[in-house]
Amino acid sequence: MQPSTNRKTLRNLLLLTLLGGVGFGVYKGTRQILKADPLAAYKKPIKNELPSNVAVFMEETDFTRVEPNQPAAKCFVKEMSIAQNRQMYDFVGVSKGQLTWKKALYEFSADRGNWNGYAKQLVLDGKVKLKGSKFDLDSQELSYDEVKKTLRVPRPVTGKLYGGDLKVANFLYNMDKEEYSTGAGEWKGVLANFAQGDVPTVDTKKSWEFKYESYGRKDGFDVFKNARATDGEVIIIAADIKREVKTDVLTASGDVKYFGRKANMIADKIVVYRKEKRAVVTGRVTMLVKPKSQENDKLVEGTLPPMLPVIPDSISKNRPPAPKDTEKQKQREDTIRSGSNLRDYPLTITAERIEYWYKKGERRAKINGNPQARQELPEGEWRYVWAHSAFYDDEKEILKLDSAPGKRDVIMKNSLDDEMFGVSGTIVTKEGVDEFEFKTGNGKLTTTDDDDIPPTKSGGGGGGLAGPIGNRGT
Known about the structure:
By secondary structure, this protein is mainly beta. Helices cover 11% and strands 49% of the residues.
């Protein structure tokens, strides 16, 4: 039995309706698939949408940067947002950061950061840490420039440099040249680790404190500007301190000041050859040797008193004569003429150049440029020595004085109006020892007792004079 026409028509309409429904469903599904974002699973829903400038959001992931002939960079981040332009990356929770260049490893971490693919720069802020083989630093900001190969910390920095404590205004490191610089600040640590220089009597195993306006290593030199260094035993101040890393030669220049337990010194320039253990001090050198009684006093910065001039004869000869044949006058003469009390009073020395070898067992000094020495004694008394050049044996504690060729310009005077001239002279500086000798010269002595004048002693082709001089109570 065949269905009627009406029934066939109804059946066909029903089939068409079913097929049409299926086709619309396939069409709609296809459109949804085509419109789907393959990275949707990585995008952070912010009210079901990302900000318009963010293309991708990822959590707990690695960021890696590898370019030919460039430092390799990588870090782990808690959150990473990638901009629509695919060149800007924002990070939250940066850790396990590493930069590798020329076999050197630099580690970093921070609270936040961003990578700029156009400028090829990584900027970190928050709690920032930076570590290399020479330093371990903390700050609030760090920038890495891939093009310049630099690590820059523009904010105050604390941490370690060469094992010592560092506190500076900023820090800049060139990964390509392995050079660095800092702003104003300070460093405290063992000088042998820091390896920034040496001066006579300095113990490199002690803890030193450096303060400066700037410090850096560049072109093979360590350079300090307006620096002050101390180990508690000495203080060194200079406008410029420079050390050549390869030769280990230290140069301090520009109003150099040295304050120590035994002596203070100022000069225009000091050059220290650390490998040779030799120092050369030049330019208006003035040294104040302290009396032994002050060697344990508190170390302080100070000024060096100027060397007082000798009173001209035209003035001194008009002074009233001192009383004679009295015990007080003999004590006065004994104090002024005795060499055994050299360590009891301050001694000021001036010269143009002092070269000093400071290795133990070989300590000695050459002094040139018209050296002079003046010692101030109680009640305004004094003694004064001049020479063309001098040599000091620090091991034997003997000072040798020499004249210019053909002259007798080794001179010794005192406030008693004693005068001695010679081609050469020798003075023993040992504590408690009273010995000296002048050769090939002449002189005058003012004394209250003729028996005090010692016999002459020949030497060097002419008359000589040897001490002690003065009443010794014998």
